[in-house]
Design goal:
Jelly Rolls, 35 strands, 14 helices, six-stranded antiparallel sheet, eight-stranded parallel β-barrel, globular, 3 domains, TIM Barrel, alpha+beta, single chain
């Protein structure tokens, strides 16, 4: 017989329309698998989840649910379930940077404002997720803000080009013809763009472009163009009608003339790159270009006759490999003499990465008795200009003398840069050198020795750079932004983002995730704390690591100061604002909760720099582990996590709780259809354990709340724990044993035991 809770199903339509005022309505069937309906009947004895929160003991506690803001706005089942069971909502994605900021930096908060309007009408609060994160950012926009600055120069000659040459004028324009032979025909009906730079030995108004077919098919005529004696951009857009067009031809027979063609590009169709390779002719050939008599009307130019932008200028060419010592390539430097040793140490000069430590074990007879040498090629010639820079410190204050060498160990001149005065703190030494003639002018320079022999100590080097100034023959001048400029620019971008969000929310959202997932899972610098997330330990292709530019210590303070400023400016009561730092794996048993300990350390660092941090969010995307020993270790670590959190005195929130199930630690999640009823009960007990320990260990004044991350089990095609039993409801919105365990945890007691009885109809 089929068990159905007719009252609850009947309330569905009403509940979806009645807002959040009637908590007695449970618009969801508690049904289960047809062959075992009686096992689930006990779940009908539970009330809505938020009814189990002791509001006298926990007056400020918020029971939350994560959901798609659009689902809530639409007022469907998700809306009714959220209103009936929870106090607060977290938007899964709609309040994140990438969902709002477009590639040009414009921001669209329309979904956010609609979400707030719906929440306000229903009397629900919103947890702001998230102001700062490295994931789900608009990398296109952010990287464009810190891209190198390109200064266009005036057009001029430089490099190679193709010359279309006609010695004698003819009555027919096609009497002088050159074409490019495409390897495959263009696609009929597809739009293409042909662009190139052109100039001529004399003004000419009769040049034509033809589309031709090797099989003799009909020719097509996209148009003609005029060309003068100065370089100009030519563009054609065309759509072939024939299916066999495989030649792009230039006709220019009516004048005795030379036409110079450069930077040829043909794009369109499914091609992601130009269909004409070597369109700049910089390999010194015109491969692919021909005519009826190959070479009669087309040839490669002399070097310097091609098109170039820019009137020169200077760029810098780095001559040192691995000058930041992050890799193991040692071809650019040599350590020698006097028993000198070296090793790589952490951290580097900026507090991250590596540095090179060179130890001179004793005072040498001569300063050059212990040397750190870097080399480069080609050797310097008069007029060359070099820029040297290095970050340096030592265990004691001392001076490094510098020596010029032709090759490592081959003396050239006793003085290179003068002395480098070194302290026990990192400092940057820079020098610019212009090469003269002879040894005194450093002609023939190919290596530089840093003489360490005067002091027995350990010297530390980082970011060693030796750059040669190169005169640009032409082309745009490219200027990289300095680290300070990038920090200033991205501080503005973060400020602008937070300002826009706070304006859109108008003070309604009072609790915010200031920064999400800041801490990595490794300590590479040996300071005893896990490093922050970074491009050096993460995925810079997918993510944008603000902290790499804003600085580890300033990252969060920049965020919280902007949040405080604009929350108050756009209608918020400053006393109501709460800012959290949120992270995952804080319950990690495999490292003794070291990630949480590291997060607490970083919070102390950020607060010392002026950050406002009111609370800590622990995500808790957990799995019940069927291996008893592993499960016990996990439970012990959860207890330790709550104890460490309680000791901070901050508000504590379980921010993204959901649960799968695995055979053993770090195993693959068992799919929903393969989880037995007994295993569901184990998961329910684990939910109860987690929530009871939260209330037991976290003092009442610090209990911000608990948010369930998944309403239902994850669909098989989902990108989040796809096909796993992570919900409190199944995909049909029927309660699961996990619902009962969650409710038991909130109540601090078992509300209903699983029953074998079957309802009669």
């Amino acid at each position: 017989m089929k068990y159905t809770n007719k009252i609850l199903l009947g309330a569905l339509a009403v509940g979806a329309l009645s807002g959040c005022t009637d908590d007695s309505m449970l618009p969801y069937d508690v049904g289960a698998k047809p062959e075992s309906l009686s096992q689930y009947e006990y779940l009908n004895n539970y009330d809505v989840l938020k009814s189990y929160v002791d509001r006298t003991e926990n007056p400020n506690f918020k029971l939350g649910i994560a959901l798609a803001a659009t689902d809530y706005i639409n007022g469907d089942q998700v809306y009714s379930l959220a209103c009936s069971n929870f106090d607060e909502m977290t938007a899964g994605n709609e309040m994140k940077y990438a969902s709002i900021v477009s590639d040009d930096g414009t921001m669209n908060f329309s979904t956010v404002t609609s979400f707030i309007d719906a929440a306000r009408q229903a009397g629900m609060t919103i947890y702001g997720h998230t102001l700062a994160w490295h994931s789900q950012q608009n990398n296109t926009y952010l990287n464009s803000l810190i891209a190198p600055i390109v200064i266009p120069g005036e057009a001029g000659n430089g490099g190679y080009c193709m010359i279309l040459k006609n010695a004698t004028a003819s009555a027919n324009i096609w009497d002088a013809q050159t074409w490019y032979q495409l390897p495959t025909p263009l696609q009929s009906g597809t739009t293409y763009t042909l662009s190139f730079m052109a100039r001529a030995s004399a003004a000419y108004n009769d040049t034509q472009i033809y589309l031709q077919c090797s099989d003799g098919g009909n020719q097509e005529y996209p148009g003609g163009f005029n060309v003068g004696t100065e370089w100009q951009q030519i563009n054609f857009t065309f759509t072939p009608t024939g299916a066999t067009v495989d030649k792009i031809a230039f006709n220019f027979g009516t004048a005795a003339i030379n036409i110079y063609i450069d930077n040829v590009s043909l794009t369109g169709g499914s091609a992601t790159e130009s269909l004409i390779p070597n369109g700049d002719f910089e390999d010194g050939t015109i491969t692919g270009w021909t005519g009826w008599t190959p070479g009669n009307f087309e040839t490669i130019s002399e070097d310097g006759e091609g098109y170039s932008t820019g009137g020169g200028g200077v760029s810098l060419e780095e001559l040192i490999t691995n000058g930041d010592f992050e890799g193991d390539n040692e071809t650019s430097y040599v350590i020698q003499s006097g028993g000198t040793t070296y090793e790589y140490v952490t951290p580097g000069s900026d507090g991250t990465g590596r540095a090179l430590a060179v130890t001179n074990p004793q005072v040498q007879a001569n300063d050059y008795g212990s040397q750190m040498i870097f080399n480069f090629s080609p050797a310097a010639v008069p007029g060359d200009v070099y820029e040297f820079s290095v970050d340096v410190r030592a265990d004691v204050e001392c001076a490094i003398t510098t020596q010029a060498q032709s090759t490592p160990g081959s003396y050239l001149h006793w003085n290179m840069f003068g002395d480098i005065n070194v302290t026990t703190e990192w400092q940057t030494f820079t020098s610019t050198v212009t090469i003269g003639t002879g040894a005194e002018g450093l002609e023939g320079l190919g290596a530089v020795a840093l003489n360490l022999g005067n002091t027995a100590t350990t010297y530390y080097f980082d970011n060693l750079s030796f750059k040669k100034q190169v005169e640009n023959a032409g082309g745009d001048q490219t200027i990289e932004m300095t680290p300070e400029e990038k920090k200033d620019t991205l501080t503005w971008a973060m400020d602008n983002w937070i300002k826009g969000m706070m304006e859109a929310c108008g003070g309604y959202v009072t609790t915010w995730e200031a920064a999400n997932e800041t801490v990595s899972g490794a300590d590479t610098d040996g300071d005893g704390w896990y490093d922050l997330q970074s491009a050096t330990n993460g995925d810079p292709e997918t993510n944008f690591y603000w902290q790499d530019y804003l600085g580890n210590e300033d990252y969060v303070p920049i965020v919280t100061k902007a949040a405080e400023k604009y929350f108050a400016e756009y209608g918020g009561n400053p006393a109501d604002l709460k800012l959290f730092i949120n992270d995952y794996n804080l319950e990690s048993w495999w490292d003794g909760n070291q990630k949480l300990k590291s997060l607490i350390h970083w919070i102390e660092v950020w607060e010392a720099n002026g950050a406002k941090i009111d609370g800590i969010g622990t995500q808790m995307h957990v799995s019940y582990i069927l291996n008893e020993a592993d499960q016990k270790a996990q439970e012990d670590a959860i207890v330790n996590m709550f104890q460490l959190m309680a000791a901070t005195g901050k508000l504590i929130k379980i921010s993204e709780l959901d649960m799968g199930i695995v055979e053993k630690a770090f195993g693959e999640g068992i799919k929903t259809e393969n989880v037995t009823f007994e295993q569901q009960l184990k998961m329910a007990e684990f939910y109860q354990f987690i929530i009871e320990k939260y209330f037991e260990i976290i003092p009442a004044a610090q209990r911000y709340g608990i948010t369930q991350w998944c309403i239902t089990d994850s669909p098989a095609e989902s990108g989040w724990r796809g096909g796993e039993p992570v919900g409190l409801w199944d995909l049909n919105y029927s309660r699961k044993p996990a619902y009962g365990g969650f409710a038991n945890g909130l109540a601090g007691e078992v509300i209903a035991e699983p029953s074998a009885s079957v309802s009669n109809e």
